[in-house]
Amino acid sequence: MAILFKSTPASIRRWRPFLTQAWPERDLRFWPEIGDRAEVRHALVWHPEPGLLASFPNLKLIVSLGAGVDHILRDPELPAGVPIVRLVDPYMTRAMSEYVVLQVLRLHRQDFVYRIQQAAAEWREHDQKNAAERTVGLLGFGQLGQDAAAKLKALGFDVAGWSRSGRAVPGFTTYGGAPGLNALLRRSEILVSLLPMTPETENILDAGLFARLPHGAGLVNAGRGRQLVEADLLAALDSGQVSAAVLDVFREEPLPPTHPFWRHPRIIVTPHVAAETHPPTATAIIATAIEDFEAGRPVANAIDRDKGY
């Protein structure tokens, strides 16, 4: 019974010592050294090529090496009936919250304005709101969104969240569905997207959404690159409807050197680092998921394929 690890060469180098230490007795196979495909029972993957997972005839479990599973679900040959587990790691949750707090503070304290003034050697003060006077909206109010919201609230921000279900979260104003989305957008001077990638969320960050934000709102996108209509963001920045944006995810990664986002004075680009997978902590979580599966116990964070998360 073999376990396949499929990711980038750099990722294999990071993960190998932790996996081999955790499972010294297991038959671990690191791509491209896969051996007999019929012996592979479990696959730990990040961005597997279409058709790869279907090539293992006895595959029983698929584990994503990150919180997202869209990179798996878009495979047209994905084996039916094989459970898919997404990685939920408190370390990654805390890292995402650090990123969100940093970028919200950057937008709140008008860092973009002062960076532009610094480049022009211009000394000019601007009126500054207190955090309690600043409304922040989070798209995606699951574990990641709620943890980030709690940390923002501790700093005094007026925080609300939106999810498809609109489930209530103690201590926060929450919204759901299309009417709820409109209500959240109208109140969000800073909008943070942590949405999972689903057919419903693709291209959600478009001109229509930006128009429903307060004029001059800021945007943080740490969800998925295909959720952002890039031309619409550039137009919203040019018109002033959106004052500035921090982007961690992109339609094409790495972001091409010629892309206009790199040199835009009101965009900050980070290279998909908001919440990187942390092998020392993630290994134990994956090991537990596989052990639970093999023992016939419920597996935490197994996804609903129809929902996409």
Note the topology.
Blueprint: E1 2-6, H1 9-22, E2 27-30, E3 40-45, E4 61-64, H2 70-73, E5 84-85, H3 90-108, H4 111-119, E6 135-139, H5 143-154, E7 158-163, E8 173-176, H6 177-187, E9 190-193, H7 207-211, E10 217-221, H8 230-239, E11 242-247, E12 267-269, H9 279-294
Helix pairs in contact: 1-9, 3-5
Which class do the helix and strand fractions yield? alpha/beta
Quickly count the helices: 9
Average per-residue pLDDT, rounded, comes to: 97
Percent of residues in helices comes to: 25-40%
> H/E element string?
EHEEEHEHHEHEEHEHEHEEH
For the record, give the distance between the C-alpha atoms at the N and C termini, rounded to a whole number: 27 Å
- Which strand order does the major sheet show? 8-7-6-9-10-11-12
CATH class of the largest domain: Alpha Beta
- The CATH topology of the largest domain is given as Rossmann fold
In total, how many domains does the architecture comprise?
Answer: 2
Question: What is the overall shape?
Answer: elongated
Amount of beta strand: 15-25%
pLDDT below 50 for ≥5 consecutive residues: which ranges?
A: none
How would you characterize the largest beta sheet? 7 strands, parallel
Overview of the molecule:
The protein folds into two domains: 2-89 and 277-294, 3-Layer(aba) Sandwich (Rossmann fold); 90-269, NAD(P)-binding Rossmann-like Domain (Rossmann fold), CATH 3.40.50. The protein starts with a strand and ends in a 15-residue tail after the last helix. Helix 7 (207-211) links the parallel strand 9 and strand 10. It contains nine helices and twelve strands. The strands form two sheets. It has a seven-stranded parallel sheet with strand order 8-7-6-9-10-11-12, with helices on both faces. Strands 2-1-3-4-5 form a five-stranded parallel sheet, covered by helices on one side. The chain has 309 residues and is an alpha/beta fold. The longest helix is centred in the N-terminal third of the chain and has 19 residues, at 90-108.
